Amino acid sequence: MNRRSGRISLVASLVAVLLVLGASAAVAQSNASDVADELQAQGFFIENGASIDPSEAGRLVAVARDAGEELFLVFLSNEPSSGATFFAENVVNAMPSGIVLVIAPESVGYSGETAVFSETEITAAVDQALTAGGTDLDLATTFLDALPGVDLGGDLSPATTRVPTVTTPPAEGGGSGLLWVIVIVLVGGGVFLFMRSRKSGSASGANSALGKAKAEVQKMLSAVANDLLEMETEVRAANDDRVDQFYEDASAAYSKSSEAFDAASTPQQLLDLSNGLELAIWQLDSAEAIL
To answer: Where exactly are the transmembrane stretches of this chain (predicted)?
Structure first.
């Protein structure tokens, strides 16, 4: 009886989902450095067609800076294929510090290290902005106003920071917004996509997209570890060189994935872990077929 056939299908599903996730992230990453350069120069980025005025964006950045938070604002007129949260993550990876809030036509997301506010406070502020809805300015204003201690005041004059002309956007693939992948989870052998969008107003868990996928990889690691322990006595008793080799190879593949697990933080790294686990499962199945 093959005790791991169900797990093989789960790994295959996870691999397929991560391929989609990785491809989407790659699209966003292609222009992340350009956006990051603009953010570091002026504190905000406005894609042509976004509804906010540069003076308004500059003022909001200044308000956040006055509160002690290194906040950067990105306003997109085209929905990134990977969604706002992954776009924000890719931009943050190209920057030395700060937190990036991305407001796109169909999603709002953030990523980065905060200096003043907790992640709970940031997430709650995003939730409130999504619930309130409105224009780009409305969303950004509601977000900041929801943060404790932030004083928006009533002055809509331009901020003291440099206010440039609207940035011409780089070509962003997938602007149609057909793929709004935010959170990917495997449940009961099925693949479910959870979307966080301005239409639905649901913002919970958007910043844990990779964390959800990583948790499933961790479950697979545990399952393979249990199979290795369960089969060890039977493998040794068989005294068969072929079985020993398959078992040892499976152990090595498992160890490699296990050692790399903590540092895995990108879709490609999780995909590599999944491939390693799939190899370990195949080797255990091969050993079991001989026993």
So the answer is: 177-195
